[in-house]
Design brief:
Elements (H helix, E strand, L loop, with lengths): L1 E7 L4 E6 L12 E5 L6 E11 L2 E6 L5 H5 L5 E3 L22 E4 L4 E9 L6 E6 L2 E6 L5 E5 L4 E4 L12
Parallel strand pairs: 7-12
Antiparallel strand pairs: 1-2, 1-6, 2-5, 3-4, 3-6, 4-5, 7-8, 8-9, 9-10, 11-12
Length: 167
């Protein structure tokens, strides 16, 4: 859901760069996982937060000094899928896209979504086919349908971007 950018003040608060606009993830009492993704991430409970666009100031319980907060700088901040707030119909989390089959409107297999790169504008899908990767803007002009139950992403690929030679 984001990254710890820097410390804020002397009392242990941190500034997060958010990759989600779901402010409910930062509500007081929520548990976030800070660190490397997976078992090394440290569970920290949100004591309070203030969201401003794609940045948030967060105070975690038990983090009281600037030095303790500095140890978190650069760490990924995640939430478990079961703790993520529900989204409105027709929307989804970026993590939901990873692993989906990518295919054209005609059903031609183009690979699998290996990741999503936030760019500050339109996010970019990293599509892997075999040992090669290619990038596709996650814009409505290219993403025709997201079929989570069917585990597929239907795309309209710009001519030449994902031809047999390229992927």
């Amino acid at each position: 859901m984001g990254w710890v950018l820097r410390t804020q003040g002397l009392g242990g608060a941190v500034i997060l760069r958010l990759e989600t606009d779901v402010a409910a993830c930062l509500a007081a009492g929520r548990t976030l996982y800070v660190g490397r993704e997976g078992p090394a991430a440290r569970p920290l409970r949100v004591e309070g937060s203030r969201v401003e666009g794609l940045r948030a100031t967060v105070q975690f319980e038990g983090i009281r000094t600037r030095e303790e907060a500095a140890a978190l700088v650069g760490a990924a901040v995640t939430v478990t899928r079961s703790d993520a707030p529900p989204l409105p119909d027709g929307t989804f989390y970026q993590a939901d896209l990873v692993g989906l089959r990518v295919e054209t409107e005609a059903g031609e297999a183009l690979g699998e979504v290996a990741g999503v790169m936030p760019t500050g504008g339109v996010d970019v899908l990293v599509v892997r086919r075999g040992g090669r990767e290619w990038l596709l803007p996650a814009a409505r002009a290219f993403v025709v349908a997201v079929d989570l139950p069917g585990s597929r992403l239907v795309v309209r690929v710009p001519e030449g971007l994902a031809d047999a030679e390229a992927v």
